[in-house]
Amino acid sequence: MGERTLDIDHVCKRFGGNVALDNVTFEVRPGELFGFVGSNGAGKTTTMRIVLGVLAADSGVVRFDGTPISHEIRTRIGYMPEERGLYPKMKVLDQLVYLAQLHGMTANDAHRSAEAWIERLDLAERRGDPVDKLSLGNQQRVQLAAALVHEPDVLVLDEPFSGLDPLAVDVMSQVLRDKAATGVPVVFSSHQLDLVERLCDRVGIIRSGRIVACGSVDELTAEAGTRLTVSVPGAPTGWAEGLPGVRVVGDNGTGTVLELAPGTDDQSVLSAALAAGPVREFTRHRPSLTELFRSAVGEGAAR
């Protein structure tokens, strides 16, 4: 396990009779953007609260840099909660300076850092406004600044992109990339799977408190098997039924969609198609993260 790695190791949590987390294990490596995805109630926020030490795990351990999370390590984490935790009547600049000092920064360093993040996140004209007078998008930006102002060694962000306009999403994405480029491990949850696919080095999918898939998008989609669209206009109905390693998914308007189990030879499918009639289309594609997520958590569970 590398230096400055955030390691979630066999974490379990129950609330009464309800198993919230069941042996959740994954790591976020230095300089990595890790996307944590799952349906509502799957266990994302519970995991993040245990990482923060806000909740105690029933068993298992969270380590950063090889050391179990302590109060001292907690001050080095930048956290953005889903239910935003800002002081509504406090002015933007005052709030950021206060939070930076709370994490151990000197007054001078706190001011310097707060001003830098206000500038970086296009909040300069809002620095003297109370938070409750800001638009939702600007409140989000302040919340991100609050997670970053003390120059954390690890970032844990719960739904940081929710409620942001496309411009703010771009700003947020770039900030996260820049932080990761300095060697900071970054983990964030999101329902915006296209964004996760674009941004993340690796992804963990959680369902009912269990990690059901973890790896790079390429690894996960390769494991999910290949999909083919095959158009054989004159073929008898059901020509692809019963081919070994092939599942008929349906029709997408241009042809029959087939899913091949890993290791299935697509040439055998092509031979069967040619035997059924002239082939007009034979296209292969890997599933997107959204398709992968749906199959991993069950149809209808993705939001």
Automatic annotation (TrEMBL):
It comes from Prauserella oleivorans. Keywords: Antibiotic resistance, ATP-binding, Nucleotide-binding, Transport. SUPFAM superfamilies: P-loop containing nucleoside triphosphate hydrolases. Residues 6-233 form the ABC transporter domain. GO terms for molecular function: ATP binding. Belongs to the ABC transporter superfamily. Pfam families: ABC_tran, DrrA1-3_C. It is found in: Cell membrane. The lineage of its organism: Bacteria, Bacillati, Actinomycetota, Actinomycetes, Pseudonocardiales. InterPro entries: AAA+_ATPase (IPR003593), ABC_transporter-like_ATP-bd (IPR003439), ABC_transporter-like_CS (IPR017871), ABC_transporter_ATP-binding (IPR050763), DrrA1/2-like_C (IPR025302), P-loop_NTPase (IPR027417). This is ABC transporter ATP-binding protein. The keyword Transmembrane helix does not apply. Signal peptide: none annotated.
